[in-house]
């Protein structure tokens, strides 16, 4: 969602004179916040998920499905209920926020989940109730779905109908396919961001996705955009045998699943950021769910590169198409892409990608007392210009605000995000955000992925495991993860064996963080998840080992076991990814002509079945979901909560007692 500040947004031309000022003061704000909070200790594990939903409208009479542009209306009612609860002192079960598109809403738990293992048994229930809460406000022919809509950009894909306006000089995106009405209008951020990306770049964004070549797919696949009002830009930008798209909405209008974890302190947050970074491609492949774009079957299974291109504000100079003149750098990536560096000190040996940054910004951070590794990370983010500046918010108190810092931080969309505490929330500590996961069709699946990643953080911290890879191989893995059926057909660089760091992360140098290349091998997703003989025990066996050492109530252990078995079966291919299942559905549909085209009728039948599956009305899709049922519940039983809290308190008190035998804590 990003930073939602109220005010009058500046156009790109109005922003340009303030760029250097905002960067300088953004760094000042970070330095002040860093020194104010770097010694913060003792925060408990808290975590939460963010699920983005699409509102769809089914036209049964004409066998059509459209996105319903009612997000602003729905959010006003959902957020009104939040405000009432706040006034009367009732805890909100959910929180609702706007997203990029006017057919999307974002839902989160009302309060973060805590560190109790029993919390895993309420996650799915909370997700289910979120879906129910939106559903109560929908019309009879509408539904809320945790999917990326496959017909975005097709003719008449919105309800009510809206036409793109590519030749209107005052239009926001000027897209051939995606109307401005599909962009959320309830907050100025989204439309202004779209326009500023286009104006900074000097052209519309250009998204090219390889098309899936079927028996009767046009060869070469080249589209004619002249009837849509193309002035020649699309013809020049579109690649042969690719699906062409030209608007931010094709990426940011897709839905995703994200998780945020609070660490005990700054050091642990940096450690988690690094250790989870190599896991991101694995989850991207394992959650593949997006094989259709603009009504065509693509030869990829993920939205990742599509979002990357949809917000690529780099100029021709920065993309290496013209010699540098006005710009400072040729930049290899979009501002939405994989991270370029680890940030924990002992991980530096794995940073094999040369970072770009302005020397004066880097020096400003060093002079401000920020260590080299974190300074490089922050300075590298600040090669990007601010895209969203509000007229009323330019002058700020750098000791109290972090808004200029967040303006740039929140528009660097990477697979992991390092999140400092906000200045106005004393209860929130240092956090990391896990960002690559594709949203899943059902609450069971989304809960399974969330609990898997959270448990993996517990394994990493408890066992002091390191999964570090050279950062260049993480980038390569992210590319492999998007390929069609990557979960079955691709191999990924991963660390074999188990390397543990008995020295806690606070140490400045840890021997296990050196980079022995012989410990990096290629493995399948199944081998990484379930194990590969003597080379690697597998992530899920490690999680089970952690659970065996913990006191877990019967219902929670049953639920978690169901989640882990489900993920293992999906990793092996016994249960299909949503992307694979979708391809099979399209291929078997009587209206499919083996030409890569997903017609109106196919899209209707596909989403109708998806909706029935998500609501639990259709139980025959064992290929997609298996036969798993969790014991998820609305509340943690009080007896279980008391027992776990007592155990946590006892462990904490033992941890602070002096050791008598000199042994490491783990």
Automatic annotation (TrEMBL):
Signal peptide: none annotated. Keywords: ATP-binding, Glutathione biosynthesis, Ligase, Nucleotide-binding. Residues 647-666 are annotated as: Disordered. It holds the Pfam family GCS. Pathway: Sulfur metabolism; glutathione biosynthesis; glutathione from L-cysteine and L-glutamate: step 1/2. The lineage of its organism: Eukaryota, Metazoa, Ecdysozoa, Nematoda, Chromadorea. GO terms for molecular function: ATP binding; glutamate-cysteine ligase activity. It comes from Plectus sambesii. It catalyses: L-cysteine + L-glutamate + ATP = gamma-L-glutamyl-L-cysteine + ADP + phosphate + H(+). Its EC number is 6.3.2.2. The keyword Metal-binding does not apply. GO terms for cellular component: glutamate-cysteine ligase complex. GO terms for biological process: glutathione biosynthetic process. This is Glutamate--cysteine ligase. The keyword Nucleotide-binding applies. It is an enzyme of class 6 (ligase). Belongs to the glutamate--cysteine ligase type 3 family. InterPro entries: GCS (IPR004308), Gln_synth/guanido_kin_cat_dom (IPR014746).
């Amino acid at each position: 969602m990003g930073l939602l500040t109220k005010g009058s947004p500046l156009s790109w031309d109005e922003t340009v004179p303030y760029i250097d000022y905002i960067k300088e003061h953004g760094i000042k704000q970070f330095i002040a916040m860093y020194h104010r909070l770097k010694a913060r200790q003792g925060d408990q594990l808290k975590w939460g998920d963010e699920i983005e939903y699409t509102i769809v409208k089914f036209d049964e009479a004409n066998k059509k499905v459209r996105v319903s542009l009612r997000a602003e209306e729905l959010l006003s009612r959902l957020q009104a209920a939040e405000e009432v609860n706040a006034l009367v002192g009732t805890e909100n079960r959910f929180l609702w926020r706007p997203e990029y598109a006017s057919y999307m809403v974002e839902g989160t738990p009302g309060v973060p989940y805590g560190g109790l293992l029993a919390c895993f048994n309420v996650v799915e229930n909370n997700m289910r109730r979120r879906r129910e809460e939106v559903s109560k406000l929908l019309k009879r022919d509408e539904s809320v779905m945790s999917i990326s809509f496959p017909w975005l950009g097709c003719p008449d894909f919105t309800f009510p109908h809206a036409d793109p306006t590519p030749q209107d000089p005052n239009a926001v995106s000027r897209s051939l396919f995606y109307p401005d009405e599909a962009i959320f209008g309830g907050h100025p951020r989204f439309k202004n961001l779209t326009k500023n990306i286009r104006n900074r770049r000097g052209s519309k964004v250009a998204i090219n996705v390889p098309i899936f070549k079927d028996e009767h797919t046009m060869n070469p696949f080249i589209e004619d955009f002249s009837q849509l009002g193309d002035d020649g830009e699309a013809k020049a930008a579109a690649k042969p045998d690719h699906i062409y798209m030209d608007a931010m909405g094709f990426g940011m209008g897709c839905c995703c699943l994200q998780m945020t974890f609070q660490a005990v302190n700054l050091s642990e947050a940096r450690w988690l950021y690094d250790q989870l970074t190599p896991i991101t491609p694995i989850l991207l492949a394992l959650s593949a769910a997006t094989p259709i774009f603009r009504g065509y079957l693509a030869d990829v299974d993920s939205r990742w590169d599509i979002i990357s291109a949809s917000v690529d504000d780099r100029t021709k100079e920065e993309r290496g198409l013209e010699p540098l003149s006005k710009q400072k750098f040729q930049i290899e990536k979009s501002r939405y892409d994989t991270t370029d560096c680890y940030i924990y000190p002992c991980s530096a040996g794995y940073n094999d990608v040369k970072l770009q940054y302005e020397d004066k910004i880097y020096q400003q951070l060093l002079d401000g007392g920020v260590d080299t590794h974190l300074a490089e990370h922050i300075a590298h983010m600040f090669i990007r210009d601010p895209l969203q500046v509000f007229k009323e918010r330019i002058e700020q108190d750098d000791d109290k605000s972090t808004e200029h810092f967040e303006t740039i931080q929140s528009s660097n969309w990477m697979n992991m995000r390092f999140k400092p505490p906000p200045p106005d929330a004393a209860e929130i500590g240092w956090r990391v955000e896990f960002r690559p996961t594709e949203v899943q069709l059902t609450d069971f699946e989304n809960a399974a992925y969330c609990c898997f990643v959270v448990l993996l953080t517990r394994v990493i911290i408890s066992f002091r495991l390191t999964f570090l890879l050279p950062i260049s191989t993480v980038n390569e893995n992210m590319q492999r993860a998007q390929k069609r059926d990557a979960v079955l057909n691709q191999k990924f660089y991963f660390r074999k064996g188990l390397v543990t760091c008995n020295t806690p992360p606070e140490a400045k140098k840890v021997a296990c963080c050196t980079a022995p290349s012989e410990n990096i091998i290629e493995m399948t997703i199944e081998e990484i998840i379930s194990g590969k003989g003597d080379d690697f025990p597998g992530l899920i066996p490690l999680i089970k080992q952690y659970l065996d050492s913990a006191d877990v109530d019967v219902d929670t252990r049953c639920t978690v076991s169901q989640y882990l078995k489900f993920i293992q079966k999906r990793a092996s291919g016994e249960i299909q990814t949503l992307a694979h299942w979708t391809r099979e559905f399209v291929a078997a549909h009587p209206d499919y002509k083996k030409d890569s085209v997903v017609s109106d009728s196919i899209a209707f039948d596909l989403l109708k079945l998806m909706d029935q599956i998500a609501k639990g009305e259709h139980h025959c899709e064992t290929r997609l979901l298996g036969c798993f049922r969790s014991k998820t519940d609305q509340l943690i039983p009080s007896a279980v909560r008391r027992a776990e809290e007592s155990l946590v308190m006892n462990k904490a008190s033992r941890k602070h007692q002096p050791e008598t035998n000199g042994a490491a804590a783990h």
